[in-house]
Amino acid sequence: MAAFLEMDETGVYVVGHGWARTTPKGAIDVPPGLKAAAFASAYIVDGKLQPRPMAPSPVAAEGGYILKGCPVGSQVIFADLTGGAEMAVVQIVEGEEDFSFSFPDEGRYRVEVEPPLPFMPSKAIIEVENAPAITKS
To answer: 26, 64, 78, 91: which has the highest count of C-beta atoms within 10 A?
Structure first.
């Protein structure tokens, strides 16, 4: 049995992987000795499998946080984990790729970036106390 990568309808983005005696239609073989799972977040650029770029994660900045270089068309979803509620959804438009934000109260918050293709989504948990702390999840 050989490993294969299942491709999307465009033949560009990897959407799954598996093993089979014969490669399914629309799939591509994984080179011998390599694991299919290693390509789960890949896409084809100029005929070669490449890792898809990641959406940015927030970093601490003066007065709050910033998402640097957020792809246009991304949705940024803010949730208050302490209060158990979604706070806001922001659409990134041209000219706002470096998006700054802050939280009004101490607590635990989740920031998810759902970018357009080819980017991979990112998620971070931010604990707001005396000093901001960011952990990726």
So the answer is: 78
Contact present, 71 and 117 (Cβ < 8 Å) = no
Euclidean distance between CA atoms 33 and 76, whole angstroms: 38
Question: Whole-angstrom Cα distance, residue 83 to residue 105?
Answer: 11
Convert the pLDDT of each residue in 41-90 to its tens digit.
Answer: 899 999 888 899 999 999 999 889 999 999 999 999 999 999 899 999 99
Amino acid at 104: P
Nearest to 111 by CA among 101, 96, 97: 101
* Identity of residue 119: F
The first and second tokens of residue 137, run together, are 């999840």
Distance CA 77, CA 94 (A): 18
SS3 state of residue 36: helix
CB of 109 closer than 8 Å to CB of 103: yes
On whether the CB atoms of residues 135 and 124 are closer than 8 A, the answer is yes
Helix (H) or strand (E) holding 23: none
Please say whether the beta carbons of 68 and 125 come within 8 A: no
- Its pTM stands at 0.79
